[in-house]
């Protein structure tokens, strides 16, 4: 036998909007009331005559209408409202029926950050690089693009080794795209690379966010030909520390540049332009 409550569903909503969960009613059954609960707490009991009993201090946050459908509204939605709600219909003689629905909150993406491992080296796939950032909710995609300096055009770039993951945090998705570049098979030295986040669930065409561009300038294969400290080729803000056939790249502090055997904070404009 079909119960008094057929289904309950919500739609995606941004924070600070009003989120509605709509339940389809079986109008052939007369009900006594509908009670809404979340996380073990009763929020409101609604009666067909329009009377509402509130059990929350935030009584002005919730609204409802009842008829052929039951609509439960949450005003000024915040991340803490993203929860499962239980709707229990009480009918005569102690009968009841319950359905659950979750409020889904959508979020726009943010600007991604590109993190380069500057130990990348010509002729190898040394270096683990990352795109990190917020891909929104529902989660969008995170990809790579490279720009040919001669044409100025960006094209999609898919390294043979890459891994994408994301996790929900505060109603949005923090994502990481890890990758390496094989300079044996990818002739892209001198190009620029950037991260791209696309969220096509919010609008069409997709909303795009880009990281800052970084020039692809791997180290020469013989950069560490002997142990010791030496300048990083083409970048005065970092230096190489070579030891036991290993290359370690160390950045100078902000505002400092490498000169001789150490990082200094004087005459950087002159040092970096020579």
Task: Give your account of this protein's structure.
This protein is elongated. The mean pLDDT is 89. 2% of the residues lie in helices and 49% in strands. The chain is an all-beta fold. A hairpin with a 5-residue loop joins strand 9 and strand 10 (96-102). A 5-stranded antiparallel beta sheet has the order 6-5-4-9-10, with no helix packed on it. Strands 14, 15, 18, 19 and 20 form a 5-stranded antiparallel beta sheet that branches. A 4-stranded antiparallel beta sheet has the order 1-3-8-7, with no helix packed on it. The protein is built from 1 helix and 25 strands.
Topology:
Elements: E1 5-10, E2 13-14, E3 19-25, E4 33-38, E5 41-46, E6 52-54, E7 62-66, E8 69-74, E9 84-90, E10 96-102, E11 105-106, E12 113-115, E13 129-134, E14 141-147, E15 154-157, E16 161-169, E17 172-180, E18 192-199, E19 207-210, E20 214-215, E21 228-232, E22 235-243, E23 246-251, E24 257-259, E25 262-264, H1 268-272
Q: What is the typical, i.e. mean, pLDDT?
A: 89
| Whole-angstrom Rg | 29 Å
Structural class designation = mainly beta
List segments where confidence is low: pLDDT < 50 over at least 5 consecutive residues.
Answer: none
| Helical coverage, percent range | under 10%
Strands side by side in the biggest sheet? 6-5-4-9-10
What is the count of β-strands? 25
Element string (H = helix, E = strand): EEEEEEEEEEEEEEEEEEEEEEEEEH
Terminal residue distance: 85 Å
